[in-house]
Amino acid sequence: MIDIPAMTGIRLRDFPEFVRTTNPEDVMLNICIRETGKAHKGSAIFLNTVDALERDVLDALSTMFHPPVYAIGPLQLLEEKQIPKNSELEFIGLNMWAEDLDCLTWLDKKEPNSVIYVNFGSVVRMTSQELLEFGWGLANSKQNFLWAIRPDLITEAKRDLVERLVRELMVEEKGKMMKAKALEWKRMAEDAVVAPAGSSYLNFDNLVNEVLLSKYETS
Length: 219
Fold this sequence. Notes:
The protein is mostly helical. The protein has a domain at about 110-190: 3-Layer(aba) Sandwich (Rossmann fold), CATH 3.40.50. It has helices spanning about 25-40, 55-65, 75-80, 105-110, 130-140, 160-170, 175-190, 200-219, and strands at about 45, 70, 115-120, 145-150. Belongs to the UDP-glycosyltransferase family.
């Protein structure tokens, strides 16, 4: 166990692979160390999360850093709510890759809650063998899946483990509980970005007025 404020019970294996590395020259590890050190010098720290989801963590961060901390996520939902349709800013997005919407036709033909979505984010990379192993694990689960694979897609995975976890999520009782929790978090995230009282909406407004505009008012 590692003692981290507001994150009791967290284990070393819960951290991303680049944090657990034994290589002091690891690129991602050093980026995190460098950027965390810079956080003390900033005018503000804003995070892509929601007050209601991580209140204890946000309170702990507020005592550790001198700049004020603002939770303004999920940024994609906030952007959708705040940028009017047909605005010149409408095409602002968080995805650096070109979107492929062909999958939507296929998804529309599937029953609700019958497809598992697989996405490793923007950091993880795989060898070709690991990619193949993970793919076989998904296929052996006999469940519908949509897998987003980046063009530049390292994780350790065995097909039997992947198969077991997919079945657990899609078929077993534990998976139903996880889906219910995910829906609860989804509602919390949606409520957070709605004007005029959503927490992320208010925090974003405060960030603009208290940090960005205040510099012009005092100059």
